[in-house]
Amino acid sequence: MPLQIILNLIIAIMWMFLSESYQFTSFLTGFIIGALLLYLLQRFIPDAFYLSYVWKIIKLLFLFAKELVLSNVEIVKWVYKRGRDYNPGIFAMPTDLRTNWEITMLTSLISLTPGTLSVAISDDNNMIYIHAMDIDDKEEAILAIKDTFEKAIMEVTR
Amino acid sequence: MTETVIDVIFDILVILLLISGAFFIISATIGVIRFPDVYTRLHASTKAATLGISGILIGAFIFLYANHGIISGKLILGIIFVLLTAPVSAHMIGRAAHSSGVEPWSKTGETRDEYAEIKNKGS
Amino acid sequence: MSEFASFLPDLISVITVICMVVVTISITILLYRVVKGPTNPDRAVALDAIGINLMAMAGLVAILLTSTQLNDVILLIGILLFIGTIALAKYLEKGVIIDRNRD
């Protein structure tokens, strides 16, 4: 992975020198050509193509933005609804993620999804306690978090 | 002619972003006033305020770019910073509230709190 | 079309002033929660929300004055707000902000 990034940068700088124009646009052209070459020659280079990894990170960011907008619409609905027809509570969710970095990302994603807010993490890092606006559909929330967020984070980190 | 069309589109975009941002911010405030306990108030203040501030700052970015040709990356940095830190502060305040003994509000009267159960069992 | 285009910048400044009024009302309502708040965490939540509103206010002033000088102010308010909220939460949880024995 570091080897591929260095190769790509070297190709970009060589392109800059070969075309004798020392500007950002020619560097960018060289970078794109280098990425294309690496993609074509990925059978001869160890490890997977590194831009696919970057693409997964970009997909995670888009997931984050989509969930943020959805959760806002949801919370605004709760705010302007007459009366209090929700039933909040705290439930526990087991998680398979281990390192601090992964758990931080997961709790941030949980806090920005509709109707859930992470409150605490158990000492041995395998339970996340989540406050839900409507605790009656907690099974659904656990399934949704497991299906979308945990999978997306695992694709990036493992 | 085409330049005026693009300007009009940018201006309308700015107006829409500003109005939606202010709407989300005032919704967050009304939520903080109306909701019954700390945790539900945290729901309102983290989510709605985050989208409101993103709307207003993106509106400012587009306005400065379209009308004066200034690209200011600091506004984008500010949005990213708020997006990163809002969940963390919400988590910290939630944990502090729980450990200082605030019970979650419940409509039916019986609080459902699996975290408190486990904490009590441990001690 | 051209009359409409020349009319829009004025509209933007009017909308900006209206948004500033809305944000000001929002800060005033939040101050009520800071003073009244039944528990201390409530006050922390309201102070956090006031900080976010101040950031929005700085952005709106930047539009009104069409200057980039206020961008640093926005970033600084954000950073100080984060540090302040974390310190307040630690104080509410443990009673101290800087604890020597790390766990």
Quickly list its features.
heterotrimer; A: 158 residues; mainly alpha; three-stranded antiparallel β-sheet; 5 helices; 3 strands; B: mainly alpha; 81% helix; elongated
Give your account of this protein's structure.
The complex is a heterotrimer of chains A (158), B (123) and C (103). Chain A is built from 5 helices and 3 strands. Chain A is mainly alpha-helical and 158 residues long. Chain A has 2 domains: 2-40, no CATH class; 60-157, no CATH class. In chain A, β2 (116-121) and β3 form a beta hairpin. By secondary structure, chain B is mainly alpha-helical. Chain B has one domain. Helices cover 81% and strands 0% of the residues of chain B. Chain B has 4 helices and no strands. Chain B is elongated. Chain B starts with a helix and ends with a helix. Chain C has one domain. With 103 residues, chain C is an all-alpha fold. Chain C has helices spanning 2-36, 40-65, 71-94. Chains in contact: A-B, B-C.
Q: Helix content range of the residues of chain B, please? A: over 70%
What proportion strand of chain B? under 5%
Termini separation of chain B comes to: 74 Å
Oligomeric state as shown? heterotrimer
Number of helices of chain A: 5
Uncertain spans of chain B, ≥5 residues at pLDDT below 50? Answer: none
Protein chains sharing the most extensive interface? B-C, 54 and 53 residues
Number of helices of chain B: 4
Structural class of chain A: mainly alpha
- Summing up helix and strand content along with how strands pair, one would put the structural category of chain B as mainly alpha
Tell me the distance between the termini of chain A. 14 Å
Sketch the major β-sheet of chain B: none
Helix content of chain A: 55-70%
Low-confidence stretches of chain A: none
* Beta-strand content bin of chain A: 5-15%
